[in-house]
Amino acid sequence: MHGKGLRALSLVTFAALAATFALVFFYAPLDADQGFIQKIFYLHVPVAIVTLVAYVVAAGFAIAHLRTGNRQWDLRSYTTIHIALIFNIVGLVTGSIWAKASWGHWWVWDEPTLVSFLIVFLLFATYQPLRFSIEDPERQARYASVFSIMGGAFVPLNFIAVREATGYVHPRVLASTDGGLPGSMAFVFVIAIISVALLFATIVAYEISSKNTSWQIRALRRRALGDDAVTPLGRTAAPTMGTSLRGAS
Amino acid sequence: MRPSLALLRKDLLLERRAPESVPAMLLFSLTTFVLFHFGIGRDEVTGSLAAGVLLVTLLFAAILGINRLFVSEHEEGGFDAVLMAPIDRTAFFFAKAGALFVFLVLVEIVAMAGFSILLLGVSPWPTLPGLILVLVLLNIALSTVGTLVSALAIQTRARDLIVPLVGLPMLVPALIAAARACAPLFAAGGPGSIPGKWLLVLGLYDLVFGLLAYAVFEFLLED
Question: A161 vs B169: CB contact, 8 Å cut-off?
Answer without folding.
Answer: no
